[in-house]
Amino acid sequence: MIHNLSNTNSIFSVFLSEIRDSKIQKDPLRFRRNLERISEILGYEVSKSLDYKPVSVTTPLGQAECVGLSEQPVLATILRAGLAMHQGLLNYFDRAECAFISAYRKHTTIEEFDIHVEYLAAPKLDNKTVIISDPMLATGSSMVMVYKALLKQGKPSKVIIVSAIATPVALDYVKRHLPDTTEIWVGAIDEELTAQSYIVPGLGDAGDLAFGIKC
Fold first, then answer.
1. How does DSSP assign the chain, residue by residue?
2. pTM confidence score
3. Class assignment of domain 2-48+73-211?
């Protein structure tokens, strides 16, 4: 199931246009904050698909019948680019457990690369809802590798992927390699993927824009 927030105009679309804007990108603080705000909105939309239970709350004047989450999700992100999005999700799911995974491209040629996963810190995941955030879903290879790495900590009952920008190639790849029940929430879908696997028009390298150019 794929949800594309760009199908409806909202303030979300403004934040998305700002993370794409090469002039606004020169301010790393604003870039990070816009990624954070994007993931807050995505998190809010995701929350509508989660399960809730009735809760009774004591107010200064009596009892209020409310609702709470039936279970807290686990928030997983891909280092380092996903950190700003992770914070946005954590702002809303503020009692969630967290998981962190490092995944990067190791190029063999300009156009060919392997995905390497070198670090994983995660709680037990058996029968839990896991929300995985990554700003760019270009080929889908990193996301699939990360999912397989997370399985070392148990099999989730549900997987939800949250990305700012994706491509049809990545969405198709993820659908073929992740469980059928996987939900994908994206800010936009860009049609073009270059020979070097960069999204066009995309926004550039989200990790470099948020945290500085890596050596």
1. -EEEGGGS-SHHHHHHHHHH-TTGGG-HHHHHHHHHHHHHHHHHHHHTTS-EEEEEEEETTEEEEEEEESSPPEEEEEETTTHHHHHHHHHHSTT-EEEEEEEEEEESSSS-EEEEEEEEE----TT-EEEEE-SEESSSHHHHHHHHHHGGG---SEEEEEEEEE-HHHHHHHHHHS-TT-EEEEEEE--EE-TT--EESS-S-HHHHHH----
2. 0.91
3. alpha beta
